[in-house]
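TOKENISED FOLD:
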Amino acid sequence: MQNVVLIIHLLLALSLIGVVLMQRSEGGGLGMGGGGGAATGRSAGTALGKVTWILATAFICTSITLTIIAAQNAGSGSVLDRIVDSPIQAVPDGEIPSGSSLLPPAEGDDAPLLPTAE
């Protein structure tokens, strides 16, 4: 289900980009152009404008749907709950034990991870 909604979401995004790019620009970005000043009435709605609103509404609906699906599939535990408690070995300040790595050995592996200088 999530894959179907995601594919529809991507198709809506691409369609919305295409429809917005096809619309006529009135010069100047961010609605600054068009002339007539602040007293200008709203222009007549075009077919591309209506399609843009429909695609934008559908895009927002699929975004919300994907968010709900992701929240339902999310785990209930915290990442910190998965940390295994391991004893910490005390080392004097500035002193690193010779012949050992800074990482703990892997399970079942008693050999050091890095070759030691002897």
Summary: The mean pLDDT is 75. The two ends are 60 Å apart (CA to CA). The CA atoms of residues 95 and 102 lie 12 Å apart.
